[in-house]
């Protein structure tokens, strides 16, 4: 999608490279949408608006000086008394406006305003979404021809596909996914380990028009440079020792779909240079080959490191960073969205019970409070594994605090001997429960399976609190 046919000015009005890159990405995205989308600078001049935003008034001729938002969208000569979007420049927070053209709110029908931050960390412009106009809008032919058979993930108040959350941060993430899904611009997902970066990337893919095409995951940090290059770009026969035949790479495998480059910060400068060329030219060359291969792939990358710090330290290419971070997404750690923990616990218990063929469990109020208050340094992944372990190693219909062994205790807070005793106790409990399940609760047979006496088994059952 070329973003030129709805531009107010033929070139970017922003000198800042990050603002310019984000504006170009939004042009590519929003030109094909029926939603009304606009970008305004700090003086509320319209620097970009898509066809749907201009409506019947039509877009201004190319080269026209940017007009104020009230002049462009509601044809007023004087500014509005109060514009809620102005507060975004002061607070830097996403603003939701509960009003429409038929209500008492903004005459333009503004619905949401997102801050667009410059390389200096300041809000340099805002992205504004408007309510739909009452009259129907025609769908561009380029999108109407794409009718994938797989349905988009369902969006509810607390869920988008497999993503779960009701916190403001997650609601903003859901809106951002909906906004960027059908764009071909690159997305950079940043967040701590275990926050669910791959799940976000998969949800973006499943929400986009590419959802019927492949979604390919590459762990860049797990492969050495030479192998990573061969895996991604492919190789020709004889390119290196052992290359008995030609092999297409993962970029070719993902053609038409999405490729997810996890741990992108762990790549070498040489590989970064080759990846930059792929993003610039839209083509790859197999290792040992000379002929370029055109590809159509959406690139989503992720890292748990701060790439801006790596750029300043000359450990990551600045030009590649700008290419990858056209649409940046930040995932907050679980400790910053504790309101989502009960929702996640409920989902993980249901998933674990189904996976291990067990009846659905409940969680006591006291246990849920303890889970919500726990630190979870490993974020959502740690919580998921913890819940699965609790489901497998207990037989109660309701999980209590007694079932959640050493909740909130972490190795850095405990000496090595205590950690070892806790791990051994947990392993004994798990093995005894497996034996009892294997023998349908027959303790005599379970003792034989465990190769211990009946008395020893009874003592263990009493010691571990197994009914």
TrEMBL record:
Sigma-54 factor interaction domain residues: 163-392
A Gene Ontology BP annotation from the UniProt entry: regulation of DNA-templated transcription
Claim: DNA-binding is one of the keywords in the record: yes
Keyword match Transcription regulation: yes
UniProt-recorded Gene Ontology molecular function terms: ATP binding; sequence-specific DNA binding
Membrane spanning stretches: none
Highest taxon above the source species: Bacteria
Key words, A-Z: ATP-binding, DNA-binding, Nucleotide-binding, Transcription, Transcription regulation
Region ranges (Disordered): 139-159
Any matching Pfam family: Sigma54_activat
Protein name (database record): Sensory sigma-54 dependent transcriptional regulator
Native species: Nitrospira defluvii
């Amino acid at each position: 999608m070329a973003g030129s046919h709805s531009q107010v000015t033929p070139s970017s009005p922003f000198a800042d490279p990050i603002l310019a890159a984000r504006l170009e990405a939004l042009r590519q995205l929003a030109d094909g949408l029926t939603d009304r989308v606009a970008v305004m600078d700090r003086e509320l001049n319209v620097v970009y608006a898509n066809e749907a935003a201009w409506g019947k008034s039509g877009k201004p001729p190319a080269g026209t000086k940017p007009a104020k938002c009230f002049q462009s969208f509601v044809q007023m000569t004087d500014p509005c008394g109060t514009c809620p979007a102005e507060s975004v420049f002061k607070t830097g927070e996403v603003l939701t406006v509960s009003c429409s053209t038929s209500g008492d709110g903004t005459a333009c029908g503004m619905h949401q305003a997102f801050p667009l931050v410059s390389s200096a960390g300041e809000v340099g412009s805002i992205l504004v979404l408007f309510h739909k106009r009452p009259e129907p809008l025609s769908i561009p032919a380029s999108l109407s021809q794409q009718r994938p058979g797989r349905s988009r993930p369902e969006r509810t108040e607390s869920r988008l596909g497999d993503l779960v959350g009701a916190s403001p941060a997650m609601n903003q993430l859901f809106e951002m996914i909906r906004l960027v899904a059908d764009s071909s611009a690159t997305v950079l997902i940043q967040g701590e380990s275990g926050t669910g970066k791959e799940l976000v990337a998969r949800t973006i893919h499943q929400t986009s028009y590419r959802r019927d095409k492949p979604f390919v995951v590459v762990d860049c940090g797990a492969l050495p440079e030479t192998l990573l290059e061969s895996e991604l770009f492919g190789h020709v026969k004889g390119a290196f020792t052992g290359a008995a035949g030609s092999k297409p790479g993962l970029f070719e495998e993902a053609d038409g779909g999405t490729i997810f480059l996890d741990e992108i910060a762990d790549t070498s400068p040489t590989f970064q240079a080759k990846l930059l060329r792929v993003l610039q030219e839209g083509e790859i060359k197999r290792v040992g080959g000379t002929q370029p291969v055109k590809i159509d792939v959406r690139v989503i990358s992720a890292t748990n490191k701060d790439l801006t710090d790596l750029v300043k330290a000359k450990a990551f290419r600045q030009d590649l960073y700008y290419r990858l971070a056209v649409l940046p997404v930040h995932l907050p750690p679980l400790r910053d969205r504790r309101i989502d923990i009960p929702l996640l616990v409920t989902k993980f218990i249901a998933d674990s019970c189904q996976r291990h063929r067990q009846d659905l469990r409940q969680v006591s109020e006291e246990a849920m409070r303890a889970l919500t208050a726990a630190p979870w340094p490993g974020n959502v992944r740690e919580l998921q594994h913890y819940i699965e372990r609790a489901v497998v190693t207990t037989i109660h219909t309701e999980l209590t605090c007694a079932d959640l062994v050493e909740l909130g205790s972490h190795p850095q807070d405990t000496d090595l001997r205590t950690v070892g005793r806790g791990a051994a106790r947990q392993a004994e409990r798990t093995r005894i429960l497996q034996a009892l399940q294997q023998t349908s609760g027959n303790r005599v047979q379970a003792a034989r399976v465990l190769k211990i006496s009946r008395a020893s088994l009874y003592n263990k059952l009493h010691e571990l609190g197994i009914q």
